[in-house]
Write a structure and sequence with these properties.
- By secondary structure, this protein is an alpha/beta fold.
- It has one domain: Rossmann fold, CATH 3.40.50.
- 51% of the residues lie in helices and 13% in strands.
- Helix 1 packs across helix 6, helix 2 packs parallel to helix 3 and helix 3 packs parallel to helix 4.
Length: 254
């Protein structure tokens, strides 16, 4: 979709990637609407202050989106957890599902009627390489991102011939504040590649303009996605060493 004259609503728009996407969108002639739980009194862009971690916040944001009727919805906001599944509280698990999966579904539901009426629109869901290759110690995060991938695929088929396109973008690790000290230790010890936010933001804008269906960012990670789909047991073996390193980091700092 050409961005000139379009309105793009961005969840997590105040974050490291979201703020860069907004800047690039302006350069393309679009109007970004920032959606974030943080107050932005000096924002140069329209913004909606709301919290995706609760039902009330999702309802409030959904209502504002129905009023704004954006041309593009970019579901970017997300949270991450690195640790043993048994160490993650039920509340943390529920929160991750709410923010990473439930919220994108409900916000998409809010904008679809207007998009269908004008027969034009784009839903952009940000998944992760971790959603196609489920990593140990990122079990709940990988599960929610796998859900985003499935949601994008199913929705794309549902809106066929409606004028609406659905784009799923799956980056590898990115240098953002989501990465705590333990994740940074893991990245250093396993030589995990981590991309700069600006690089990812540019790829997102490119994918939006091309109406891309599925975009996997990073090599060899994008290759491993294909291998994992066909021969997951081979990937089990390839990741075993890194999984042991992750376990060592978690047990040493528990």
């Amino acid at each position: 979709m050409k961005l000139t004259g379009k309105t793009i609503a961005i969840t997590g728009g105040a974050g490291g990637i979201g703020s860069r996407v907004a800047e690039l969108a302006v350069q393309k002639g679009a109007t970004p609407v920032i959606i974030d739980r943080l107050a932005m009194p000096n924002s140069q862009h329209p913004y909606i202050m709301g919290d995706l971690s609760g039902a009330d916040g999702i309802y409030f944001i959904s209502e504002r989106l129905r009023e704004i009727q954006p041309d593009i919805l970019l579901n970017l906001a997300g949270i991450q957890y690195f640790g043993m599944l048994e160490a993650q509280s039920p509340e943390q698990i529920a929160l991750m599902v709410q923010v990473n999966l439930t919220a994108p579904m409900l916000l998409t539901q809010a904008v679809l009627p207007a998009m269908k009426k004008r027969r034009s629109g784009q839903i952009v869901n940000i998944g992760s390489i971790f959603g196609s290759i489920s990593f140990a110690h990122f079990v709940t995060y990988s599960s929610t991102k796998a859900g985003i991938k499935a949601f994008s695929e199913g929705l794309r088929r549902e809106v066929t011939d409606s004028g609406i396109t659905v784009t799923h973008i799956a980056p590898r690790a990115v240098k953002t504040p989501l990465n705590n000290e333990k994740i940074l230790q893991l990245a250093a010890r396993t030589k995990m590649a981590m991309d700069e936010p600006n690089q990812i933001a540019k790829r997102m804008i490119e994918a939006i303009e091309k109406d891309a269906k599925d975009v996997y960012i990073g090599f060899p990670e994008s290759l491993f996605v294909r291998v994992n789909a066909l021969l997951p047991r081979i990937v089990d073996g390839a990741l075993a060493k890194n999984d042991r390193i992750a376990r060592d980091i978690l047990t040493a700092t528990a």
